[in-house]
């Protein structure tokens, strides 16, 4: 250190310090390199991410209306698939109780399926809503006659004729009820009116409310009933 406060190292001291530290030799380690065999490995193939599946809109049929169901039930009834017709007609009137045709098909199908008590209940429910339906009154007359209640059957048939004087089936059901009541003359008059109406129809025409029966088929039935009544009168 000088008198001015500067510190320095003398050259001789540096050399002596250097001579006092022996040199260290670091051995070189050679790592053997194996020769590369084969071509360079290809980088791993990364599959592309799957594209999101395109949205496929399912074709969902709109619900069928009460009127369409009523038509379906009518076709099922004509095909004599009565249980199917019952189920379809019931769905129709549940949607819209104003479908008179569906009620008619429901009652007819229940009756043809042998479920007469249910047919009577359905017919009464239908008439509560459609009191002026001649078709329902004809069906009620048929059901009452089948249940052995000819007086009520005649009353329902007369109600149907009040609404529709041209109903062949109303005249026939009235004639049947009156015959069972022993009123032969009135029964003959009813069947005569049915025969007159049938005479105006072509033989192959299906008669309304006759469950697919043709005019020629009903004419044969009416003539047989008239013949029976004439036999009783004799």
How is this structure best described in words?
The protein has helices spanning 11-20, 66-78, 82-95, 100-112, 116-129, 134-146, 150-163, 168-180, 184-199, 215-233. α6 runs antiparallel to α7, α8 runs antiparallel to α9 and α9 packs antiparallel against α10. The chain has 234 residues and is mainly alpha-helical. The termini are far apart. The protein contains ten helices and no strands.
Task: Please write out the topology.
Elements: H1 11-20, H2 66-78, H3 82-95, H4 100-112, H5 116-129, H6 134-146, H7 150-163, H8 168-180, H9 184-199, H10 215-233
Helix pairs in contact: 2-3, 2-4, 3-4, 4-5, 4-6, 5-6, 6-7, 6-8, 7-8, 8-9, 9-10
Overview in brief:
The protein is mainly alpha-helical.
Largest sheet: none
How many whole angstroms does the radius of gyration measure?
A: 51 Å
The run of helices and strands is HHHHHHHHHH
Categorize the overall geometry. elongated
Strand percentage = under 5%
Proportion of residues in helical segments: 55-70%
- State the separation between the terminal residues, measured CA to CA: 170 Å
Low-confidence stretches: none
For the structure shown, list the relevant keywords.
234 residues; single chain; 59% helix
């Amino acid at each position: 250190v000088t008198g001015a406060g500067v510190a320095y190292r003398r050259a001789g001291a540096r050399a002596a310090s250097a001579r006092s530290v022996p040199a260290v030799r670091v051995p070189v380690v050679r790592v053997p390199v194996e020769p590369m065999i084969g071509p360079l490995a290809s980088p791993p193939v990364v599959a592309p991410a799957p594209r999101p599946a395109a949205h496929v809109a399912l074709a969902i049929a709109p619900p069928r209306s009460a009127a369409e169901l009523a038509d379906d039930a009518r076709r099922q009834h004509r095909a004599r698939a009565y249980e199917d017709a019952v189920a379809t007609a019931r769905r129709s009137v549940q949607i819209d109780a104003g479908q008179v045709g569906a009620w008619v098909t429901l009652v007819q199908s229940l009756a043809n399926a042998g479920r007469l008590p249910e047919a009577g209940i359905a017919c009464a429910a239908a008439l509560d809503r459609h009191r002026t339906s001649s078709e329902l009154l004809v069906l009620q007359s048929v059901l009452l006659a089948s249940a052995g209640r000819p007086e009520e059957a005649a009353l329902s048939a007369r109600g149907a004729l009040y609404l529709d004087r041209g109903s062949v089936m109303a005249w026939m059901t009235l004639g049947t009820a009156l015959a069972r009541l022993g009123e032969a003359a009135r029964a003959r008059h009813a069947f005569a009116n049915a025969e007159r109406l049938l005479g105006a129809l072509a033989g192959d025409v299906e008669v309304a409310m006759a469950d697919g029966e043709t005019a020629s088929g009903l004419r044969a039935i009416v003539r047989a009933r008239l013949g029976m009544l004439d036999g009783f009168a004799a």
